[in-house]
Design goal:
By secondary structure, the protein is α/β, with parallel strands linked by helices. Helices cover 42% and strands 14% of the residues.
C-alpha cells in the first residue's frame, strides 16, 4: 500500500528534496499540448513549478485545479504580452498609458492564476528617442507600475534579451529581436537600481546573458538580491544544459551558494526527448 501511494505521487514530491527550486517554461518543451497536459509533464519530470506566456488564452479555474492536483506551482506569467509589445512598451513615454493598463490586467491575472510574478519586456528601440531618453522612460514606467503591483503582492521581473543571435530558437520563424532595447545585464541592473523598489527585479536569463555579457557566476554572486527569477538554456541553440558552452553544474552551485530563493526555470528547445532532458537536468541539480 505504501509503495503504491509513493508511486502515485508526482516526482516533484516523491523524490528527495532539491537544492534549487525548479520550474519549466512549458511551450518550448511540450509544444502542441494543452496547458493542463503540459503541467502534467512538468510534474512527471519532478519539477516544482511551471510557467507560460499567454494567460489570456488559459482558463484559470482549470489550470488552478490541475496544479493543485499535481501539487506544482505557477512560477510566473508574461505581463505586457511579447518581446515587442506594441502600444504597451516601456521605451516610449507615449505608450505609458498602454503599458500601465496591461500591467493592471496582468496583475489581476497573476492573482487569478495564483502566481506572484509577471515578466516585463521593454519592447523594441524607439528610433526618434535617444538611449538616455528611453532609459528614463523605462525607469519612470516601472516606478509608476510599482504602485499597481505592490499592493497586490506581485513582482515585475524585467527581462534583458540578446540582440546578437541570428535566430531566436523559441520562435525560429519570427523576428530575432535584434531591435530589442534592453540587451545587457549591467544596464538592466542600473535601471532597476534607479527604480529601487522590492517589486521590480531582474529576470536573469542565462542564454541571453551568456551571448551578450558572459560573466554568469560573478554576476549572480554580486547581484543575487536583484535577481528574482532565472531562465536556463545553453549556448548556442538554446538547448538543454550539457549541449553547449555553459558549465551549468558550476552555475547551479553558484546559484545555490548565493542563497537564491526564487525559481530556476528551464526555457529551452530540447534535443531529444523533452522529459528525459528535464530529468537529466534534475540529476545535475541533485548532484551539486
Amino acid at each position: 500500500m505504501l509503495r503504491r501511494t509513493a508511486l502515485a505521487l508526482p516526482l516533484a514530491l516523491a523524490a528527495k528534496p532539491l537544492p534549487l527550486r525548479l520550474s519549466v517554461r512549458v511551450e518550448p518543451l511540450f509544444p502542441g499540448l494543452p496547458l493542463a497536459k503540459q503541467i502534467e509533464k512538468v510534474a512527471q519530470a519532478g519539477y516544482q513549478a511551471f510557467e507560460f506566456g499567454d494567460w489570456r488564452a488559459a482558463n484559470a479555474k482549470e489550470i488552478n485545479a490541475a496544479k493543485r492536483r499535481l501539487r506544482v506551482e505557477c512560477a510566473c506569467i508574461v505581463g505586457n504580452k511579447s518581446v515587442n509589445p506594441k502600444g504597451m512598451g516601456l521605451c516610449d513615454p507615449a505608450e505609458r498609458a498602454g503599458f500601465l493598463a496591461e500591467i493592471r490586467a496582468s496583475t489581476e491575472a497573476a492573482l487569478e492564476f495564483e502566481t506572484k510574478q509577471i515578466v516585463v519586456l521593454t519592447g523594441f528601440k524607439v528610433p526618434h528617442l535617444s538611449r538616455e531618453q528611453q532609459q528614463a522612460s523605462i525607469v519612470e514606467g516601472l516606478k509608476q507600475a510599482t504602485d499597481i503591483v505592490s499592493p497586490k503582492g506581485v513582482t515585475m521581473i524585467l527581462e534583458p534579451i540578446n540582440t546578437l543571435a541570428k535566430v531566436e530558437p523559441l520562435n525560429p520563424k519570427g523576428n530575432n529581436h535584434a531591435d530589442y532595447f534592453l540587451d545587457h545585464i549591467p544596464e538592466a541592473l542600473h535601471l532597476l537600481r534607479q527604480v529601487n523598489h522590492p517589486n521590480a527585479k531582474l529576470l536573469y536569463d542565462l542564454y541571453h546573458a551568456q551571448i551578450m555579457d558572459g560573466n554568469l557566476i560573478e554576476t549572480i554572486r554580486q547581484n543575487i538580491g536583484q535577481i528574482a527569477h532565472i531562465h536556463i538554456g545553453d549556448v548556442p541553440g538554446r538547448h538543454q544544459p550539457g549541449t553547449g558552452e555553459i558549465d551549468h553544474r558550476n552555475v547551479f552551485r553558484a546559484i545555490r551558494d548565493a542563497g537564491f530563493k526564487g525559481y530556476v526555470a528551464m526555457e529551452y528547445v530540447p534535443l531529444g526527448d523533452a522529459l528525459e532532458s528535464l530529468r537529466a537536468v534534475r540529476r545535475i541539480v541533485e548532484a551539486i
